[in-house]
C-alpha cells in the first residue's frame, strides 16, 4: 500500500487544520464576506492572495489615485477588491473582473472576465470609465500580459497599477508604459517568483 512520507502527511494535516479553522471562522458571528481568505485560493486558477498589509496598501493607493467619487477596477486582483470593500468608502466605487465565478457572490460589482477574450465585456461598460485599473495577470507570460493590457487600456482613463513578476519588467513597459515601484508586494503564502508593482503615474508606492 503506498504511504505518504511523514513530512507530506504533516503538511497535509496542517492544511486540513487550517481549512477547518477557516470554516469555523465563516460560521462564527462577525464573519466578513469581504475579508481576504473568505474565498479560498484556487491554485489551479493560479490564484495567490496578497497579505493583509499588501492588500491594504494597494487599496489605499487606489483610493487616493482614483480621487473623490472615483471608480476603481480590480482585474484579476480579488484580494485588493475585498480590502477596498472592507474600507467601506462612500466616496469611491469598485468593480471586480474575475474568471472565478465564486466571486459572483459580490453581486453587480462582479464582472466575469477571461483574459483570453480581453474585450469581451458587458455592453454597458463604457470605455475609459475607470479612474484607475489595478491588475494582476494570472500567469507570468507575455501573451497573458499582452491580452490583459488590452483590457486595462480599454477600462482606464489613464492610471494603471500593475502587479506581476519582476521578470515581466520589460514587457510591462512595452505593453503598458509602466515603471517598477520601490514597494514590494507580499502574498499570504510565499511565492517562488519575485513579485513587484508597476505604475504609470506619480504614486505613493515609491
TrEMBL record:
It is found in: Cytoplasm. One of its GO terms (cellular component) is cytoplasm. Keywords: Cytoplasm, Methyltransferase, Transferase. One of its GO terms (molecular function) is nucleic acid binding. Its main location: cytoplasm. The keyword Transferase applies. It comes from the Eukaryota. GO terms for biological process: methylation. It catalyses: L-lysyl-[protein] + 3 S-adenosyl-L-methionine = N(6),N(6),N(6)-trimethyl-L-lysyl-[protein] + 3 S-adenosyl-L-homocysteine + 3 H(+). SUPFAM superfamilies: S-adenosyl-L-methionine-dependent methyltransferases (SSF53335). This is EFMT1 methyltransferase. The gene is Eef1akmt1.
Amino acid at each position: 500500500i503506498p504511504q505518504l512520507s511523514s513530512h507530506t502527511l504533516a503538511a497535509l494535516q496542517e492544511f486540513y487544520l487550517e481549512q477547518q479553522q477557516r470554516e469555523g471562522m465563516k460560521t462564527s458571528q462577525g464573519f466578513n464576506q469581504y475579508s481576504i481568505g473568505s474565498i479560498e485560493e484556487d491554485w489551479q486558477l493560479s490564484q495567490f492572495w496578497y497579505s493583509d498589509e499588501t492588500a491594504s496598501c494597494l487599496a489605499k493607493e487606489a483610493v487616493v489615485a482614483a480621487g473623490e467619487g472615483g471608480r476603481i477596477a480590480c482585474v484579476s486582483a480579488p484580494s485588493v477588491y475585498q480590502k477596498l470593500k472592507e474600507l467601506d468608502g462612500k466616496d469611491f466605487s469598485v468593480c471586480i473582473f474575475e474568471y472565478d465565478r465564486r466571486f459572483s457572490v459580490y453581486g453587480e460589482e462582479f464582472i466575469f472576465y477571461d483574459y483570453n477574450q480581453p474585450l469581451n465585456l458587458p455592453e454597458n461598460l463604457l470605455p475609459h470609465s475607470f479612474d484607475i485599473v489595478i491588475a494582476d495577470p494570472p500567469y507570468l507570460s507575455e501573451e497573458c500580459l499582452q491580452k490583459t493590457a488590452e483590457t486595462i487600456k480599454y477600462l482606464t482613463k489613464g492610471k494603471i497599477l500593475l502587479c506581476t513578476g519582476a521578470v515581466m519588467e520589460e514587457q510591462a513597459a512595452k505593453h503598458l508604459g509602466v515603471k517598477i515601484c520601490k514597494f514590494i508586494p507580499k502574498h499570504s503564502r510565499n511565492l517562488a517568483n519575485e513579485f513587484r508593482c508597476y505604475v504609470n503615474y506619480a504614486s505613493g508606492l515609491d
